[in-house]
Amino acid sequence: MAENGDRKWLHDLLRPMKGSFREVFLISFFVNMLALAVPVFVLQIYDRVVFHAGISTLQGLVIGMVLVLIFDYVLRNSRARILQTVALRVDVQTGRILFNRVMSLPLRALESKPAPYWQALFRDVEVVRNTVSGSSAILLCDLPFVFLFLGVIFLIAEPIAWVLALVFPLFILVAWRSGNVLNSAAQKERETAMNRDDLIGGIINGRTTIKALALDRAMRPMWEEKHADNIENSVQRGGKADSFTALGQTLTLVTTVSLTTVGALAIINQEITIGALIATNMLSGRLLGPLNQLVNTWKIYAGFRQSVQRLSDVFNAEVERQESEVALDKPKGELTLENIIFSYNPEGAPIINDIKLGIKSGSLTALVGKNGSGKTTLIKLILGLYKPNSGRVLLDGADMTQFTRSELAGWIGYVPQDCVVFAGSVRENITHGSPDAPDNEVIRAAKSAGVHDFIIDMPDGYATEIGEAGQRLSGGQRQRIAIARALVGHPPVILMDEPSGSLDRQAEEELKRTLMELAKQHTVIIVTHSPILLQACDNLVALDKGRVALAGPTKDVLPRLFGRAAPPPSSATPAPPSTPSTGASAPAVPAAPATPKPTQSQAPQRQPQAGQKPAAPPQKQPQPQPSRPGAPAVPPAKPVGTPAAQPAQAQPTSSPGPQPKPTAPQATKPQTGQAAPKAPTPPQTRRPQS
Ligand SMILES: Nc1ncnc2c1ncn2[C@@H]1O[C@H](COP(=O)(O)OP(=O)(O)OP(=O)(O)O)[C@@H](O)[C@H]1O
Ligand SMILES: [Mg+2]
Questions:
Q1: Which of 201, 421, 426, 612 is deepest in the core (most CB within 10 A)?
Q2: CA distances (Å), 504 to each of 51, 268, 366, 498, 631, in order?
Q3: Would you list the domain boundaries of the chain?
Q4: Largest CA distance in the chain
Q5: How many other CB atoms are found less than 10 A from the CB of residue 137?
Q6: Closest by alpha carbon to 24, among 79, 73, 75, 76?
Q7: Among 475, 544, 546, which Cα is nearest to 504's?
Q8: Pairing state of beta strands 390-395 and 523-527?
Q9: How many angstroms is it from 375 CA to the middle of ligand 2?
């Protein structure tokens, strides 16, 4: 359970509403006072009007009662209205605080819990709202008056009051027990519901795959198991709740029978009048009602406590920096990675292991490596999304941890590996990061990403709605929009994780030109295995199991990467000043990629399939590039060893292979990325000699 200090947010939330709660309590006081009027009226009718034929008394009593009932109606209405205002404020404020809080949590914290957990938190806000402003709040106000009614009953009919005084603790006991039992049952039901929702969420997100592969047959047993689990827990919780409700009602009936019996005996003994018995019966209803309600409401309080606990956990969790002490100017974009070590699991092996790199502004750096070698993780570390276990990332010499997330997002453009876009217009998707971006900036970014022509070709242009998760767009169009999004606002650092995974060859060529242009003034890092993009890179960093295996000018590193013999670690790229500088302890890169070597007759023409990326970048020599003003001067590459055989990536221009170099984008690379050649067949002379 949270300490009181942990629930400070709740106190802060409710403190300004104290006035409203006071009003509600005051109104409840009057409502309960007026409730006394009915039994008193009945008592007077029996004792004075009926036996003494007191018509004028009756008239007076009826007029009085009409006024009381009108007043009671007005009071109850105003109480409901005040509580509605309280509900609205709780909803708005807690919802807003929760949203801000969740958005401020570090990415690792968000990844540590499944999606339904975060969704359920917003339902917890509803629980808090309903508890502090619903029937349970009214019950809380009414409960103290139970003692008032008991006191009045003591005055009118003492023998009956003793019966009620005896059952009172019994009700409390049943309510308390029901809260405890139902609490754990509700917790289990919630967990099973979350498991089921998690599965449903996954199925809905992957509905295309599910339909295409008819995975529903495989999913059905999983769904049925989780659904049955949830139903079982739900039934168990419902059964327990029903038994406590029934117990409360039985207790109420037993009390009514007991007090009527005791009342009858008291009348026979002439201790009380019949009127007193009837009035007491009515008053006991006002007393037993809240007590009976308490049995049901106690579990609401228990659920409320759980919801408050979960919200407190989020509100007290460590968040990312929200404000910078001093607003620094936009950086130039020079990046330094100082001995970065990072693991997802504190006990697990490091995923990023002692990486030292220096990347100058005005350069284009490629990050390559096998699947799972840690490229995306490293990009996220550079973005500041993950905090290294040890080591630092410096931006223009400043430790990145001092910057806020929004500052970093403004300075670092990012194209994620999975290009997520959101429902909304094309323009909104491009400007999500900078909503105030002027139109010419949006158009510039779209043109740079090669998506402008496609956008204006649509009837609604930039206002075109792209549908849920951009499903009305093709994969390549989504990717280009994600690239445009990263370019808005001229961020000095641009990180792109496989930006050409869904692009056709023409788009890739365009992207290459864009990157070369951008790299004149920006720090551009791309994770790629595309020969076209690799050609454009000044520097190349090869990761292997989270370590820098090789780094340096692309022309030097590419031949080494695919050389027959791996270079000794000590020779790992004595980088020139403007090339990525690495630690000297970098291990040798694996000499051969994981992909099987093709035979000559299997002249490798195929793009690697999804999930079958080459273990390392292409074997071909990079084409000489037109030197760019900002590009670092790199010595000509010296081939080290003989290039090992690689499928797919060959030197396009020098290849005598039979495949013509297609130009039409659609013809060159189908979106499936499987069969069409990206590069012509490598010449035989480039086949491995080993
Ligand atoms: N959120 C996560 N939680 C736990 N482990 C993770 C998480 N994300 C990645 N990993 C692990 O970290 C390692 C590196 O993953 P990463 O995504 O950085 O590889 P990558 O080099 O980008 O691979 P790919 O070329 O397939 O994109 C993998 O072994 C992966 O299983
Ligand atoms: Mg990756």
A1: 426
A2: 100, 100, 19, 13, 26
A3: 4-315, 335-590+604-668
A4: 126
A5: 21
A6: 79
A7: 475
A8: unpaired
A9: 5
pLDDT digits (tens, 9 = 90+) for 466-519: 988 888 999 899 999 999 999 998 899 999 999 998 888 888 998 999 999 999
With left for phi above 0 and alpha for psi between -120 and 50, is residue 546 left, alpha or beta? left
CB within 8 Å of 246: residues ≥ 6 apart: none
- Encoding tokens for residue 432? 């999500």
Residue 367 per-residue DSSP state? E
Question: Where would I find the beta strands (DSSP E) of 200-351?
Answer: 335-342
Quick one: which atom of ligand 1 is closest to the CA of 374? 18
* CATH assignment, 4-315: 1.20.1560.10
pTM (two decimals): 0.72
Quick: pLDDT tens for 550-565.
999 998 888 887 654 3
Distance CA 487, CA 476 (A): 17
User: Rounded CA gap, 679 and 657, in Å?
Assistant: 10
From 367, 375, 547, 612, the mutation candidate for ligand 1 (largest count of ligand atoms within 8 A of CB) is 375
Residue appearing with tokens 């009127």? 275
Task: Identify any residues that bridge with 540 across adjacent strands, giving them in sequence order.
Answer: 366, 552
Architecture (CATH level 2) of domain 335-590+604-668: 3-Layer(aba) Sandwich (3.40)
Burial class (CB in 10 A: 0-12, 13-18, 19+), 214: exposed
Q: Is the CB of 57 under 6 A from ligand 1?
A: no
